Amino acid sequence: MIRFFEITDLKELFEHDRRMTRELIGDHATPYDEDWLRKLTAPNRERYRSYNTLVAADTDNHPIGFAILRIHKRALQLPHRARRGHFVDIFFLSVAPGHQRQGIGSRLIDDAERWAAAQDAVELRLAVMDSNTDAIRFYERNGFEEIGLMRDYPEDGVLSHRMRRRCNPSLLDALDRGMP
């Protein structure tokens, strides 16, 4: 089940962040600041209203995956859809090791796309480190394409791929017609 973040999910989010940071960058890397994660997931957040967090939960409603999203209200060059042009950045996607390769990450991405389309966004974007070849292949299987390279992201000396997935036009059209 995919649901929105609840404050009781915070401890598990911290654990996912620490594990993912260690696995991808090493013990010398710094995970996201816990205070910052607490602020951007708070139910009454004012400063971080552009953020949303999706949670994949098991049958006991225990978090097993997270997707932290941020809407960017910018006009992209889209002549066929002049009123839309925002995009959503997936800047954190994590699924617990015991639950990987079961379609959970793909479901988080699909729900992120639905949320993005409801915000008038036309595409999802993300950055993935060059050394994380499994993730690059995962995102490609989920409809992402590379649009550029980023040097020194997320840390100095790291090369990352910038990728995007355009929102499904039929989903956007259904939202235009007022359908869920």
Can you offer a commentary on this structure?
- With 180 residues, the chain is of the alpha+beta class.
- The chain is built from five helices and seven strands; from the N terminus they run E-H-H-E-E-E-H-E-H-E-E-H.
- The protein has helices at residues 10-25, 34-41, 104-118, 133-141, 169-176, and strands spanning 2-4, 51-57, 63-72, 86-95, 121-129, 145-151, 159-166.
- A seven-stranded mixed sheet has the order 1-2-3-4-5-7-6, with helices on both faces.
Quick structural overview:
With 180 residues, this protein is an alpha+beta fold. The chain contains five helices and seven strands, in the order E-H-H-E-E-E-H-E-H-E-E-H.
Strand-helix topology:
Blueprint: E1 2-4, H1 10-25, H2 34-41, E2 51-57, E3 63-72, E4 86-95, H3 104-118, E5 121-129, H4 133-141, E6 145-151, E7 159-166, H5 169-176
